[in-house]
Amino acid sequence: MARFYPLTVTDLRHDTRDAVVVTLAPREADRAAFHFLQGQYLTFRHAFDGEELRRSYSICSGLDDGTLRVGIKRVEGGAFSTWANEELAVGAVLEAMPPMGRFHAPIEPSQARHYLGFAGGSGITPILSIIRTVLAREPRSRFTLVYANRQISSIMFREELEDLKNLHLGRLSILHVLETEAQEIELFTGLIDAAKMEALFRSWIDPGSVDMAFICGPEPMMLAIAKSLRAHGIADDRIKFELFASGQPGRAKQKAVSVTAAASAHATEATVTLDGTARTFRIEKEGPSLLEAALAHQIDAPYACKAGVCSTCRARVTEGEVEMAVNHALEDYEVRQGYVLTCQSRPLTDRVALSYDE
Amino acid sequence: MAEAMRIEDYLAEGGVLTSPDNVPARYRGELMRLMASFVDSELAGAAGFADRINDAPGITARIAAARIVAEKTAHAGRVLEIMGEFGADTARYATRHPWAARVARDADLGQARAGADMRLSVFHYPLTGWVDAVAMNVLMGLATGVQLEELSRVSYAPLAEAFREIAPAEARHAELGLEGLRQIVATPSGRAKAEAALSYWWPKVAETFGRAGSERFAMLKRLGLRHRPNEALLADWTAAAEAALGGLGLRIGGR
């Protein structure tokens, strides 16, 4: 089960108007837990108005930097990122899980590879970690970065990337693509779409020379780039993805509190929503689990272990109260948000509603 | 750079998801179900095969059988680790079930999952000896190859990657099985036993591909968790199995 460790903020640097780079230090005893691989992320938790919110941010340090840094870009309406940008200060303590994620390729010091990275906005953070690591540990390899941003002033790590380019002469090339600012070469203005990819491959990057590609950014950019890479013969086993989803909810929703929670009858009226369709049926309070009842009513609810271990059957209670017999998979904060393991749940109230869609 | 896009549209267009954070609830359920099916099948397959190590004729066959058991268990662990990232209690999961449990040899489960785990139905039937184990391993090994090729394209990138890593070793298991079968059919009595065993396992392995025209397929395809329909995969396996057995001069009855 997930475990959180305290990390002290030892440095804080505003990189652009709405992005902050935070340097963190684990306690001496926890150092081993925070050994990371290039491209991994940390998941933080913080309580806002008594409600826990979790957010993941990619590590931007290289393996040999001796620091643990994350870049946090402020998202409109995002509680955690706004707090990190506006209120976080040196000396503060954050809670984070050990590094996770598989957005990396194994380093082979003897290899001379050509890596191609695509970053959209704050998607640069894990790619920077990879660039720093590759340049330091694979001395014969080179990296081409295509970096998309809205405008010059929103480019994260602009100076740091320039410094890396100068430090490793000829091994790092950077193509900036700016959405709203015209540049000398028209190719570098606008969005990275299919046409832009074609043009890049025609005149700037030889797809045949690419050993491994990394893409990190929002959905449309990921789609356009992946499609183009595949069309140019770079198969999926040579493409590493890290999606920075644009649709992250700002704040966890409070579980709806039922006003009709009084329990009386032996049977409960249960409403189960799956794939947007709600079905209502009666179920004995002391009878089979809500999952079993849903399956018996031909609702194709997901499940696997039926033992409260795997969490496949997770659903959210939106009305009424249920009780779980066993829970080895959900964490307290999920339970507080109303999530239950339906294979272990029986209704307590005369009406319950739960959804597999939330 | 970042116009908003619905995650459902993104998936329908072939997008990939990369961490538990960006996985919608329904996707999560189906992804977990898919992973559980693989993990349970590998654990049950390995557990059933473990008992047959002692039937193996000779040291090479014993090593091959032991290796298959070890690697299938490791493959289960590799995917279980990803389930753990979604909250599954991996330690409890691995030991929660008697993976070696089997139904009667003449039971007929069809395509239905049985009991309290998600293993493919074929892994509920008992192996009766070395020839039987080899026959099952050949047919199911080829089926696993077809299924892993499909699963290596799933839209959850960490899982697709795991399946791509697993696929070569699983292909090797099928090859080891074919090598064992080649030795078995060298004698007339071995050939007769092999034909009987292959005839027993053929329809049961075919069942693992699921129903033709499955209504779940359309939903899984929208989520990028499946790409080719059950009947196409079944046809691929049928061709591969017929070619492999034909190479040994075997014709399996009842087809």
From TrEMBL, chain A:
Write out the entry's keywords from A to Z: 2Fe-2S, FAD, Flavoprotein, Iron, Iron-sulfur, Metal-binding, Oxidoreductase
What this protein needs as a cofactor is: FAD; [2Fe-2S] cluster
Signal peptide per UniProt: none
InterPro entries in the record: 2Fe-2S_ferredoxin-like_sf, 2Fe-2S_ferredoxin-type, 2Fe2S_fd_BS, Beta-grasp_dom_sf, Cbr1-like_FAD-bd_dom, FAD-bd_FR_type, Flavoprot_Pyr_Nucl_cyt_Rdtase, FNR_nucleotide-bd
Give the source's domain of life in one word.
Bacteria
- UniProt-listed PANTHER family: 1,2-PHENYLACETYL-COA EPOXIDASE, SUBUNIT E, NADH OXIDOREDUCTASE HCR
Question: What is the designated name of this protein?
Answer: 2Fe-2S iron-sulfur cluster-binding protein
Q: Tell me which SUPFAM superfamilies the record gives.
A: 2Fe-2S ferredoxin-like (SSF54292), Ferredoxin reductase-like, C-terminal NADP-linked domain (SSF52343), Riboflavin synthase domain-like (SSF63380)
Q: What range(s) does the FAD-binding FR-type domain occupy?
A: 2-106
Under the heading CDD domains, the entry gives: fer2, PA_degradation_oxidoreductase_like
- Indicate yes or no for the key word Iron-sulfur: yes
Q: Name one Pfam family in it.
A: FAD_binding_6
Species, as recorded:
Defluviimonas salinarum
Residues covered by the 2Fe-2S ferredoxin-type domain: 268-358
Q: Which chain positions lie within coiled-coil regions? A: none
From TrEMBL, chain B:
User: Which Pfam families does the record cross-reference, listed alphabetically?
Assistant: PaaA_PaaC
Classification via SUPFAM superfamilies: Ferritin-like
Q: Which InterPro entries has this protein been placed in?
A: Aromatic_CoA_ox/epox (IPR052703), Ferritin-like (IPR012347), Ferritin-like_SF (IPR009078), PaaA_PaaC (IPR007814)
Which ranges form a coiled coil?
Answer: none
Protein origin, superkingdom: Bacteria
PANTHER family according to UniProt: 1,2-PHENYLACETYL-COA EPOXIDASE, SUBUNIT C, PHENYLACETIC ACID DEGRADATION PROTEIN PAA
Q: Please report the name of this protein according to its UniProt entry.
A: Phenylacetate-CoA oxygenase subunit PaaI
Name its species: Albidovulum salinarum
